Each structure stands twice: as structure tokens, then as C-alpha cells.
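Quick question about two entries, pasted in order.
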Amino acid sequence: MGNVGPIPPGQYWIQPSQMWTNRWYNIDPRAAWGDHRLTIHVMPGTQTYGRGGFFIHGGDHAGSAGCINLHAGMEDFVRDIEAATKAASECYIPLTVQY
């Protein structure tokens, strides 16, 4: 089956400097994406079954097309990750997805 279901289990990484903020003038729907999103990159060896375009994001809609949706918790995540990486100009954080 195509691009359905949760993000496949495996090893990924995120780069906090890639945090994207949805401004009032952007066309992306705030209800679906929330105010922030962060790209999830696939580590070599992780089987994604041809899928991609994974993000960590907020938003009002339950579920997603394979992303990690933190809903209202996204604002706390953004605050915490910005505080934790303030001293580092560039950093890469490993992310393990398992069920």
C-alpha cells in the first residue's frame, strides 16, 4: 500500500536549525501543520518502503500521513529543543522510532 500509516520504525535524525515556522503569510494550513515543523531525515539502513517527507509538527488534526504529530505539545518541544541546542550552531539529534 502507498503512503499510508505511521512513520516506519527505524533510525532517523533531526537538525534543530531546520525548524520551520508557519507565519501568517504562509499558505500551509495552520490546523494541519501547526506553527512549527521539523524535517525527519532517514538514517542509512532504515526501511521506509519508498516513503519519505516525514516531519515532527503540531496542528489541530489528530493523526498524520506518517509524521510525528505532537499536537499542542509542539510548542513545548520547540521551546525545549531551542533551549537545549542554544550553544550549538549546528547539531544533529538521533531519533529512534519503535513500536
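Here is the second entry:
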Amino acid sequence: GINLLNLGGAGRAGLGTNPLITKMRQMLRVNDSKLLIADAAQIEARILAWFAGQQDMLEAFAEGRDIYSEFGSKLFAARLRKARKTDPPPLAKLFTIRRGFAKDTVLGAGYGLGVNRFYNNCLQNPGLRPMFDSGQYDRKFIEKLIYGYRNTYSMIPKFWKMCEKCFRLVTKYPHEVMRYAPEGSTVGPGDLLTFWNNGGTVNVQLPSGRVLYYPHAVIRKKKNDYDYDNQISYHHGPLWGGSLTENIVQAIARDLLVHWILKAEEFGLPVVLHIYDEILAVSSTIYAKDNLKTLMNIMSNGPEWADGLPLAAEGEISETYKK
């Protein structure tokens, strides 16, 4: 069978995009009206930078800069940008591959993606594998990507450690409450995150007010050579700072998505589908352009609890669902 979930795009690590996905998207269409397709731009990277207090990344997003190209330019010590239709094919391919590496690093390394896994993902991609087999890229190159990210955006690894520390402390000392907000945070009253233990279930309250629950939270002792000593764990398995960060960031992305959907419907835009950070609404043809602007404006603004989080959206009008 085919796993249609989260397949990588061209020039990306992973298995690459199966052409069937494009065909399946085109099956979703509207008649006598238009489909408004709006996508929250780099939403997880933005939320992560906001939580971690990674100010240079937040400023880049707020100014509308291409963070993937900027990071890639630093890694490759050469100017990088999105490929254009007017670029000669070899140049377009080079830009696409290099920016793809940078994008995958920014998106994956933010949750603690390691060298081995990233390297193996690249080897599984039929478009990238020949470049590794030929020696154009190798494991040392992947090390450069991962450690380049961690050094460039050093507040993010610190955030992993903070999440793990808070979780560990309230697990070990159930009567403690741990609160977190990055230095210089512009968030309103209260804290970005609050950790506490309720009868063995660690609770993590998000800035939206929603709570994540981790039942049967424990600190495990090492049982064999493959275990980590003092590993934090809960009902569904082991945890660490990177996995907690992923849970927290994706939960906030979901809260924002719901906020935008409700706002869109307040403005009379019927939402017919949502996929990850993407919203699809139906509009009459005559008002499609204005309604798309409205939807993108909604998705470029957050609720009060997301103060200081720079948001942006991209969108298009179509008769069928497409990327």
C-alpha cells in the first residue's frame, strides 16, 4: 500500500511525493463557485521560535524574509533563493535541492531530529540517494546541517531542555508547579506554559488555556543497555524535551487553526475542509478575490493569547483542491 501521510516534496528528504496524491487532490472540486485555499506559512517554525524566544528567527518571519533560503545560504556559503521558472534547469535544480535541505532541517531539527535519522531519510529518497552514493553529499554534510541549526538557533535546544526539566520536576515532586515564559516575552498575564502533576498525570497548560495530559508519568530506571537512565515516560511511551516540544507546538498550531475556522465562518466563509495548517472555504465566483484576501487576513492574525507571534498566510483560488 501507499502511505499518503506527510510524504516529502521534490528535493526533500524522505520518500518523495507520490503522483497519485496530486490526482486524488484534484478529485475534490466545487461546481458553480470557487474554492479558496489558504495555508498558514511556516506555522510550526514560527510557533517554536515564539515559545523558545528565538528573536532573530521571529524578526525574520515578521519581516517576511525567506528563512529557509537564509539558513541555506549560511550552510552552503552561497546565495540561495527559491527557484524561478526563468532559471536554467541546472540552477533551478541546485536551488531546489539546497533549499529543500535547509527547509527539512528547519522543520525537523526544531524537534530534535538527529543526524542518523536525517541521513537515513535522505537515503530513502530516490531523488537524493544517487547524490549520496556518488559522494556529492555524505553523513558529514548531514552533521553540518543538524549542528548548524542547533548553533544558529541556540534558544531552541534550550527550550527542549526546559520542557524536559519542567516535566521531570513535577513528575518527581508532585506538589511542585513549574511555569515558563521566554525572557522578554510580550505575552499577556500569566505564563506561556504551566506544568503540574495531578495524581500521576502531568498536565501542561498552553497559552490558549488548553491542557495536554500525560497519564502515568514516571521517571524510568535503566533496565538494559538500550535504555536511557532516568528516562521520563508516560502511558504511551518514553518522552524527552524534543518530543514534548513537538506536542506543545503542534497543539498550539491546532488551536490557531480552530480560531481561524471560527473567524472565517463569522465572516460568512463556509469552511468545507481543513488539512494540517490549511483551510479550504467555498466562495461565489464574483467575490472570490475579496474573500480570499479576507481569509488570508484572518490567518495572518491570532487571538490575544498569541501576542508577539508573527503569522502569515498564502492562498489561491481554484476549482479543485491542489497544492
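Reply: The two ends are 23 Å apart (CA to CA). The chain is about 45% helix and 15% strand. Hope that helps.
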